[in-house]
């Protein structure tokens, strides 16, 4: 088996609330996997557990078939977390050298500079003087300092401008070509679609969809029929229509998400509902993602 990350029935509860609820997945060597989901979905908690920084309440996590806390594991992984906390008084280059010294086969400083886009001027700055975007670059450099086989990136592009984002994803593609395994979290379907081999879509602590971006897109970007209702129609009633896969209300219109708009229209007409302003929507991907998570919110 090529799986270098393995989670089996992992749950993390804070007090009584389950942040991650019975999650299982495995990741193979060389895969780029996006953990996608809205705020509070459990993405960061999952990353922190994989890194051995949080202990699961139940279930098991293995990296390279070992406990994530083992030194032999730590030497093979790198992580960029949301908060980069470094020693403010040190210069950027000193922090990078310090991190490199923790690893048996670190990446060269030259390569780290190319990968992260840090400039010579940035290297001489004290960490406390860095802008938000420069701090993210430093965080990325520290994640790569040990030339890791497995890289964890928690919302890596937050605070980056467009140029920095572009360069960042180019570097990720380059690291993938080198055979590195990359796991990143994001709120943005587009980012996951552009770079990931596989998406794990999290919502409320569970994986609600999993697959290649193409598969996820096919599942999510369903068409819908929308209309204005002239009478009191309940979502629950419409959800019973045989071809309705989802029903929701937005800006005074009712939307019925479906695989077959012709059939759903026939079903709606048959019921003789008093409706007007009927439209068929193609379904944008971002919208579909929002629908999926919003609708689950209401369940
Ligand atoms: N240390 C903690 N103590 C209590 N609750 C926590 C703690 N850490 C996370 N949670 C809760 O667990 C849930 C999942 O949080 P998590 O940070 O994993 O989500 P996320 O998907 O990373 O969200 P975001 O996109 O906002 O970063 C949230 O409801 C959060 O409030």
Automatic annotation (TrEMBL):
Signal peptide (from-to)? none
Give start and end of each ABC transporter domain: 5-229
> Record's Pfam families?
ABC_tran
- Single annotated GO MF: ATP binding
UniProt keyword list: ATP-binding, Nucleotide-binding, Transport
| Domain of life per record | Bacteria
This protein is called ABC-2 type transport system ATP-binding protein
Organism equals: Cytobacillus eiseniae
């Amino acid at each position: 088996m090529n799986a270098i990350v393995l989670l089996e029935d992992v749950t993390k509860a804070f007090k009584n609330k389950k942040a991650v609820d019975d999650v299982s997945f495995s990741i193979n060597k060389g895969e780029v996997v996006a953990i996608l989901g809205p705020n509070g979905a459990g993405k960061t908690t999952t990353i922190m557990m994989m890194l051995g920084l949080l202990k699961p309440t139940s279930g098991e996590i293995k990296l390279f078939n070992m406990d994530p806390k083992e030194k032999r594991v730590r030497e093979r992984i790198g992580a960029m977390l949301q908060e980069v906390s470094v020693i403010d008084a040190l210069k950027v280059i000193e922090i990078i050298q310090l991190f490199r010294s923790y690893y048996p086969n670190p990446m060269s400083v030259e390569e780290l500079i190319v990968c992260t886009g840090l400039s010579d001027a940035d290297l001489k700055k004290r960490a406390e003087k860095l802008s938000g975007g420069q701090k993210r670059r430093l965080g990325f450099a520290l994640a790569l300092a040990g030339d890791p086989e497995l890289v964890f990136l928690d919302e890596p592009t937050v605070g980056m401008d467009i140029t920095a984002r572009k360069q960042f994803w180019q570097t990720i593609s380059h690291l993938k070509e080198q055979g590195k395994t990359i796991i990143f979290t994001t709120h943005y379907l587009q980012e996951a679609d552009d770079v990931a081999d596989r998406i794990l879509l999290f919502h409320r602590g569970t994986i609600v969809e999993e697959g290649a971006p193409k598969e996820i897109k096919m599942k999510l970007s369903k068409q819908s029929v929308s209309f204005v209702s002239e009478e009191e129609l309940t979502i629950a009633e419409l959800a019973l229509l045989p071809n309705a896969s989802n029903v929701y209300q937005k800006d005074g219109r009712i939307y019925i998400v479906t695989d077959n708009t012709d059939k759903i229209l026939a079903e709606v007409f048959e019921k003789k509902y008093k409706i007007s302003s009927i439209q068929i929507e193609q379904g944008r991907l971002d919208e579909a993602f929002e629908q999926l998570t919003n609708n689950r919110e209401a369940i």
